[in-house]
Amino acid sequence: MIFVTGATGILGRVIVLELLKKGKNIRAAKRPGSNLNDVRHSYSVYTEHPDDFFNKIEWIDVDFDDQDALQNALIGVDEVYHCAAKVSFHPHDEKEMYHTNVKGTENLLFACEGSGVKKFLHVSTIAVLDLFNEKGELDESSEFNPKEEHSAYAISKHLAEMEVWRASAEGLNTVIVNPGMIIGSGNWGQSSGDIFPTFEKNGFTFSGGTSYVDVRDAAKISIELMEKNVFGERFILISENKKYAELGQQIRSKLGLKEAKILTKSQLGLGRLANILFGWLIPKLRIITKSNIESISSLNTISNQKIKKELDYQFIPVKESVDFHLNNYINDKKLNS
Questions:
Q1: pLDDT of 264
Q2: What does the alpha-carbon distance between residue 75 and residue 94 come to, in Å, rounded to a whole number?
Q3: Matching Gene3D superfamilies, A to Z (predicted)?
Q4: Which of 19, 88, 179, 241 keeps 20 to 30 A from 195, CA to CA?
């Protein structure tokens, strides 16, 4: 039996589906209010038999603060894919992110200690990478630098990684994957499912960029690493480094919208000043922090050479990925209009 946390999330649901395609038995964690219909519907873009697969999932509600519930969830389980996380760049979500991302991971790993779990994959993020290599790139050796200013999300994911490395040192077979921004279908408006609604709603973008990966690649690689027993290591999962403006142009032109205006770093700096002066009055301004401005105004080159070499893997190009998932977004909008 394989246990997948965050199984209704954009990546977790596809990991579940790919494992089901391999004939695995899956126990999937969800929240009481999770939208399972959205998961079932999104499967229709990944397979011709969505219901056949969806109906094989054993769904359970799990409270990550309840050690007994976690131990019960792990009965008969020998592999865990830990995808559950709170993703936000809003300062008011700091406590919830620490609780979900750090304490949740710590509690799950503690529950694994007294169970039959032999393999544990942890989904982290490229947001924890700091120190550049001699080529001026970020890679798997790019350690988190506590002296730099980070978003609360990056800090929480770094601390979660520390819990995984501790469990690894104590003998659990663990592997960490660090995906870039995940492009996928479903979960629109939440976490990385917010890419298309955000570019649709906003007539502006930023001068920087980030690294992207298709959800299908992230899921398949995660499973392959577990199957090949590649443990005690981390792997960056990205297809390409892209500017926001380039991605925004592709999305907005397909949606029949005019090109987004690029906000410069100095314009964002004025926004930060507004945050300092009026953040207490206008909650939306609170997201304009120094670390957030830095991250959206720069484009770091992130290397995917390690995973390409390990698995001889060819990633789906970002343009192709965006086209595929954007079509699904447009079709779902028509369905719901």
A1: 62
A2: 32
A3: NAD(P)-binding Rossmann-like Domain (3.40.50.720)
A4: 19
